[in-house]
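Late entry, written up from scratch paper. The run itself happened at the end of the previous shift, but nothing got recorded in the book at the time, so transcribing now.
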Amino acid sequence: MKQLILKSIIFLVLLTGMLSFMDDLFIQKKHGPVALVNSFFEAGNNEIDILCMGNSHMNRGIDPIMLEAQTGLRTEMLVGGGLEIAHIYYNLRKALETQQPKIVIIETYPLSMRNSINNKANNNIAQTIFGYKTMMKYGAFTYRGMAVGKRGGDIFDRFSIFPFHEDWTEPEKFYRYLESRKQYTSGKEFQQIQRKSPFIPQAQVDVFKTKQFDGEDISLIAQEERYLKKILELSAERNFQIIFLTVPVYEAYYMQVKDGVDRLKTQLTQLAEGYKNVRFFDYNEALGGVDISYLINERTIGKSQHLNYKGILNTTNAMASYITDNYEFDKNLERSSRNSPESFFYSGDFPSEISVDGAILSINNRAAHGEASSDTINLKKGVKKVMIKGWMASPKSSDTISMRRLVLYKDDGFTFISEGEVLPWKNPKIAAAFGNNKQANGYTFNLDRRLLEPGMYQIFHLIETAEGKFGIQKMSATLRID
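Output as recorded:
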C-alpha cells in the first residue's frame, strides 16, 4: 500500500511538472483574451519600462504600441477581463520576477465594479475565473491570484492544455499553430483586437439617456485597501512609479456617479499619503466623460462601458503627454527597439535609404492633385466616410513592399495609422498622370469618419518592406474634419 501511495505521488509530481513545463505550448496566442497579455511574456528580462495593469477597461483604454512610440519607453500590458485589484497585485508580483518597470499604470475601474464579480455587500471580493489562467503562464503567483475570492476554479483551469483542448486534439491543426507561432507577434495581434471596435448603436444610446445610475457604492472595502497597500509597498521596495489612471466612460453615466468617483479618488489619495512615487491621472475629470462616438457596442447596458479605437487613441495620447510632462528619465536611456510603424513615425528618424514616391489623387472625390486640386479638403459634419485615392511605391525595384499605410496626423498629436484600410486600386487616371508603371501601385483608403477627432490632419504615405524597414512621404494635401 505504501509503495502504491509513493508511486501515485511520484506520478502526480511528474505529471504536474510535465504539464507545467509544456504549459506555454498550449496557450492559443491568437485567442482574443490571451493576446492581451502574451506580448508581456515575449519581452526580454528587464526590457519593459511602462507596465499597464487592470482589467478590460485598461485593454480598451491604452494602445501600448502607440504609448511606447510617443514616450520611447517599452510598454506592455498585463491585464484580463473582470480582474480585481487582488489579481492585479499578483500579476504585478509575477511581472516583477523578470521585469523592473519605471512606471506601473493601474486603471481604477477594478475598484469601482459593482456586479457579480465584486460582491461589496459582503465586504469581500467574490471572483469568478473569467479564463484568468488561460491568460497567464504557469506559476505560484498565477494560482494565488486564482484563489482570491470564493471561487478559485478547478484543476482543469490550472493548466492550459485543458481549456484549449480543441486546439491540440487535431494533430494537423496543432502543428500549423506551432508553425505560425514562429512568425506571430502578440503585441500586433492585441492592437488588431483593439481596432475591431463596433460603435455603440443608437438603440443603446436611447437606453442610456433614460437609465438611472448612482455612485453610492463606489468606495474601497478593507480587502481592496489591503491589496492596494501591498502594491504601494512593492513600489517603494522595487523603486517604480505608480500612476492611477481613470479611463473615460460615457458622460451621461459619469455625471451621475461623479460623487462616488471623487470619493474613491479621495480614499486612494489618503491611502497613498507619504508615497511620493504615486500620481493620479483622472482623465474622466479632465473630459467630463466622453460622448457616444468614443464607445463600443456592449452586450449589456450598464456601468461597464468600453472605449472604441478612437477613444483608445485619445486616452493614449493624453497618457503619453502626462508622462512626458511629469517624468524625467536618464537622457542616456535607449528608446524602445520594438520595430513598429508607430515607433518609426514618432522617432522622426526617417532613414534616407528607404524613399517613397506617390501622390494623392482625390479625397472624397475632390481633386487633390492637378490644376483643379485643393490644398485642403474639408469634410463637413454628416459625411460618414473618409475616402482617399492615390498611389505609393518605392522607387527601388529591389524593395519588396509588405505593407502600405496612410498616417493621419492631427495638429494636437492625435494620430491614426492605418492597418488594413489601404487596398489595391488600379485606375487609368494614375497611368495618364504618372506613367503606366505607376498604375499597379494605386490604392484606395476607406475609413469610418467617426474614428477621427475633429481638426486639421497632415497626411503621410508609409511603406514597410519585407525586411522590416520603413519609408515615409509627407503629402501636400491636408484634411480638415468638422
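The longest strand covers residues 470-481.
(Scratch paper discarded after transcription.)
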